[in-house]
User: Fold this.
Amino acid sequence: MLKSIGAKIFAAYAHQKNKKWIEKPLEAQQKVFKLLLQKGIKTRFGKEHHFEKILTPNEFSLGVPVRDYEDLKPYIDSVLEGEANVLWPGRPLYYAKSSGTTSGAKYIPISKESMPQHIRAAREALLNYIYKSGKASAVMGKLIFLQGSPVLEDKKGVALGRLSGIVAHYVPSYLLKNRLPSWDTNCIEDWETKVDAIVSETVNEDMTIIGGIPSWVQMYFERLTLKTGKVVGDLFPNFSLFVYGGVNFEPYRPIFKKLIGRTLDSIEFYPASEGFFAYQDDQDDRGLLLLLNHGIYYEFIKADTFFDKNPETVSLISVKTGINYVMIVSTTAGLWRYNIGDTIQFTSLKPYRVIVSGRIKHFISAFGEHVIVSEVEQALQQVVSGAKEEILIREFTVAPQISPTKGLPFHEWYIEFEVLPEDLDQFAFEVDKAMISKNIYYKDLIVGKILRPLVIRQVAKGGFKSYMKSIGKLGGQNKVPRVSDNRKIADQLDSLLDLKTINS
Assistant:
């Protein structure tokens, strides 16, 4: 009882504090901008880019090129070798290891200034929920965030690990007694072994908050159901809050409702190794509050101009709702005008709220169609939610088939169904119709008989799990890209699985 009352008081205090920057967003960003330049001027990067002469955001955008990890890698390599004052004063506190670049693993520096912002953002998201909902009971029971191993390596005096594993070292003391699983279980590297151990440790506990990347939480829920014969909501009657991030939850929503057996509140996070960017601040609004005083300065480039020679960069004051932007960040960890690879859309400007619409490198434009992640997710969700029957989808990915053995080229959808539609051909037709309504370029290619309607390839149950396991990326922060402009994933699925072709 006292803990619940204390949580509500703390939540009210946090709300009043956050109101100050939420109501003055541009001023908040200007403060961050000035702080970054003051710190950056002392670094090798700042000296090479003449930070001492930069006074305005426009001068900053003109004087510092946009870079992704590959572009910034020579500086990061120097940091990894132990050189100080390269991108940020001193040396990093941690390196967050993640995958996905052409040169292998990424090592994202986390500084003593940026690390607290990750923790602060997560705490504020939970406190905001308590304040606005008036519900503090969730903090009374047991909680779990499915995450990577907290075991860290040493990289020339700097600790290295997955971001989720690093964050595990910062669980507040008042939550430690409630947190599961045990440290030893959290340190298990093999994901399937780890999930089984987590199930054993949690199955008889009063779980109230559960969080993680949806695909891996789904596996946890399925193992619980298999072990007990109960839906998760009956097994944990006080389970009241689901926290997730990393991917769009909408494709997972129907299957989670079935696994849990009831609806419950949820909070979406938008974290990355590069920073904690946003969180859902309103249960009735799918937009995520962009965090503007958390050590990150934001710029935006329209996605459809991003690959032009000199694309226009806009700051927060000039953004508009409904436009697909590439988000560019500068951070208190020394990432300068850094392209994290995500595309976002603003859903609101008062306050500034965003949704993640996809990845700038994850699109299909083999024929000029530029199909993005949000379009395929929305098309699939539209058809599933509009169906008169139950259709559940576990996982999917889309790739172009440029050189089919017969007929015109097409987009190939690899879908693992939990519950199949009765008429797969009709389902494929409806999805194609939804895609035509969402992407004018795709429509033109279909109408112009450059492409034929999409083809669905039914992936056997457990197929995507087998694929992720085969490439050593089962569990943790790893996700299957929704769309690809090449056939790397598709060809691997073809070689691994016995696939059924629909609409061929």
Remarks:
- The two ends are 61 Å apart (CA to CA).
- Residues 363-502 form one domain.
